[in-house]
């Protein structure tokens, strides 16, 4: 019995956590402290906070990987959720490992905007597009993250002659089209942008660099 108990404890999944970007939300975990036997399989359940019964995620029932997509199961973004995982190896089942509470609206990371750069002789025109959520409009397109948050765009310009770290903030606000004027011809400029969420006081990563020589 003790040996069995030890095995159950040693295969129990570790570090069960939600990771979420623009409401694409997945449950992640690591193998138990015994490492992973070839025959180890994992079983995932989830529930909304306050509900008594756990729901089984059929696509993640008896899987070998360490990730389970729960995007559709956590679509009520203001509600808190839990996930849990157990492992089965050599016919022995571990106890469930529980995630921390996950509330999509509060806990998802919002990505940077997509930046398109058009240039004229001494100016750059930037078009910003908010990241999109996985949730669909009636017409079938994905809803932008501006449907869920009051997003502010922060645009930075990098003059390539200067130090890479010298990122000047040239715009902060909600406009989707921005013009940056009085730039020097023949100089290479790079533009990056972030989204900022005032309510949560949180910024996205930088967008990928768009570079242009005027």
Task: Write out key terms for the chains shown.
elongated; single chain; mainly beta; 2 helices; Immunoglobulin-like; 5-stranded antiparallel β-sheet; 214 residues; 2 domains
Describe this entry's structure for a reader.
This protein has 214 residues and is mostly beta strands. The protein folds into 2 domains: 1-107, Immunoglobulins (Immunoglobulin-like, Sandwich), CATH 2.60.40.10; 114-213, Immunoglobulins (Immunoglobulin-like), CATH 2.60.40.10. 7% of the residues lie in helices and 48% in strands. Strands 3, 4, 6, 7 and 8 form a 5-stranded antiparallel sheet that branches. Strand 6 and strand 7 form a beta hairpin. Belongs to the type II cytokine receptor family. Residues 12-107 form the Fibronectin type-III domain. Pfam families: Interfer-bind, Tissue_fac.
């Amino acid at each position: 019995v003790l040996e069995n108990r030890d095995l159950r404890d040693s295969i129990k999944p570790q570090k069960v956590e939600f990771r979420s970007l623009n409401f694409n939300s997945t449950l992640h975990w690591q193998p138990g402290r015994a490492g992973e036997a070839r025959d180890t399989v994992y079983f995932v359940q989830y529930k909304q906070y306050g509900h008594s019964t756990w729901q089984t995620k059929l696509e993640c029932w008896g899987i070998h990987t360490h990730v389970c997509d729960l995007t559709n199961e956590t679509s009520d973004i203001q509600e808190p959720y839990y996930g849990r995982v157990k492992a089965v190896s050599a016919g022995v089942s571990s106890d469930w490992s529980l995630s921390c509470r996950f509330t999509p609206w509060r806990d998802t990371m919002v990505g940077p905007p997509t930046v398109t750069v058009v240039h004229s002789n001494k100016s750059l025109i930037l078009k910003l597009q908010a990241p999109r959520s996985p949730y669909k409009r009636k017409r079938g397109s994905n809803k932008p993250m501006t449907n869920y948050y009051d997003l502010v765009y922060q645009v930075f310009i990098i003059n390539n002659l200067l130090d890479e770290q010298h990122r000047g903030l040239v715009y902060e606000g909600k406009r989707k089209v921005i013009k940056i004027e009085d730039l020097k011809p023949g100089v290479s400029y790079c533009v990056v942008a972030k989204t900022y969420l005032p309510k949560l006081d949180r910024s996205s990563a930088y967008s990928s660099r768009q570079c242009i020589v005027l």
